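Homework-ish question, so no full write-ups if that breaks the rules, but can someone show me the predicted structure for this set?
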Amino acid sequence: DTGVSQNPRHKITKRGQNVTFRCDPISEHNRLYWYRQTLGQGPEFLTYFQNEAQLEKSRLLSDRFSAERPKGSFSTLEIQRTEQGDSAMYLCASSLMNEKLFFGSGTQLSVL
Amino acid sequence: DQQVKQNSPSLSVQEGRISILNCDYTNSMFDYFLWYKKYPAEGPTFLISISSIKDKNEDGRFTVFLNKSAKHLSLHIVPSQPGDSAVYFCAASFGGSQGNLIFGKGTKLSVKP
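A: Not a homework solution, just the prediction itself:
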């Protein structure tokens, strides 16, 4: 069990650029979640997949955000035309059906 | 509007004593509650949970108490150890979900030797 892996660990970008993050879940887990955490706050739910199907999206997930899980394994989260308010820790988690979440260490995004 | 509130940003406890972390919620439709622990530079780690049909759940040194009438839950750690020093997040969900969670802001626990 190698745990949930997220890449990159840190990303610095300029406002207006596009960024993409990758998450590799625990191999047998069929559910994959994306959360966002800003300084001094708890994680906020963004979206989740069951296998390759995106089943739920938060209203926090604006049109500039898109997530995919093409083969039901790894997932990518893309942010287009980044804004300074997108600066946050992006956390990925996976689970086996409705069991407890296992989180990765996150990708820290800084938008300058 | 914060639906899950952890009003104490920090707590300091002596090793061996009890740590009590508190959490309040506003939505009476929540039916599942969880505690996660987070060390610096790591993702949150599941600690313990409780369904709304129970008022207590215990796992080793960790006990969670739920008071539905007061919309309040607490996490007790006995005895506290220096390795327990971390940020503790309270979370709640609907429909027994363990995935789509609403988190509080967290409480930083420091256990001093």
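Now go work out the reasoning yourself. Hint: Chain B is about 0% helix and 55% strand.
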